[in-house]
């Protein structure tokens, strides 16, 4: 009996981490979101700190993107439309990239983005939100919980209104990115090039 138990425990120890890893590619509905860790583009104060408290009782839609990403660029008019539609309602839109100010400002000369634009501090948000399969949208409800993690193509008025109503939208969730370390390495590589 002792040998079988040890063998079972050994197998469990070897298999459990890969099972957890496979399930840990994306934040789950109902999770408490990680802390916000970005600086706002065009901030008025260098000491500005943005926290979840800044968005208390609001639905927060966080778009993870990059200037080099064609699907991210394609999602911009879609996001801008919702910023206008939900103006005056308790909904905030944040677009997070890891790229430097000058790269983003140059990009914005060609593409207008109406969301708050955040620059990730040292990939902290991309890591904590597991946002390697960009574009990716994380929706946080008014109670401060993850309501959905989706591709921007699945973001629509009904999804936002369901979250505003305190519901979990029935929408296909993002699959995540299986090689998170490889994605980070690639993103860092792109920072060194003139993509």
CATH domain class name? Alpha Beta
C-alpha end-to-end distance: 60 Å
**Helix proportion:** 25-40%
Q: Mean of the pLDDT scores?
A: 87
In CATH terms, what is the architecture? 3-Layer(aba) Sandwich
Residue share in β-strands: 15-25%
Secondary structure class reads: alpha/beta
Order the strands across the largest sheet as they lie in space.
1-4-3-2-5-6
| Total domain units | 1
What does this structure look like?
With 195 residues, the chain is of the alpha/beta class. It has a single domain, classed as Glutaredoxin (3-Layer(aba) Sandwich), CATH 3.40.30.10. The chain has six helices and six strands. It has helices at residues 2-23, 70-85, 101-108, 124-128, 157-164, 180-192; strands at residues 38-40, 59-64, 91-97, 116-120, 136-140, 146-150. Strands 1-4-3-2-5-6 form a six-stranded mixed beta sheet. The relative contact order is 0.18.
């Amino acid at each position: 009996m002792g040998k079988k138990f040890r063998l079972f425990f050994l197998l469990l120890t070897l298999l459990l981490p890969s099972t957890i890893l496979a399930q840990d590619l994306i934040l789950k509905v109902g999770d408490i979101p990680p802390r916000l860790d970005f600086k706002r583009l065009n901030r008025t104060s260098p000491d500005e700190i943005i926290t979840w408290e800044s968005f208390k009782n609001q639905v927060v839609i966080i778009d993870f993107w990059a200037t080099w990403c064609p699907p991210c660029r394609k999602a911009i008019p879609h996001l801008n439309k919702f910023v206008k539609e939900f103006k005056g309602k308790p909904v905030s839109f944040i677009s997070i990239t890891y790229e430097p100010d000058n790269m983003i400002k140059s990009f914005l000369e060609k593409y207008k983005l109406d969301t708050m634009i955040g620059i990730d501090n040292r990939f902290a948000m991309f890591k904590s939100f597991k946002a390697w399969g960009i574009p990716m949208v994380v929706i946080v409800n008014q109670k401060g919980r993850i309501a959905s993690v989706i591709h921007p193509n699945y973001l629509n008025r009904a999804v936002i209104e369901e979250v505003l109503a305190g519901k979990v939208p029935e929408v296909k969730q993002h699959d995540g990115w299986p090689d998170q370390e490889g994605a980070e390495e690639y993103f860092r590589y792109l920072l060194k090039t003139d993509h």
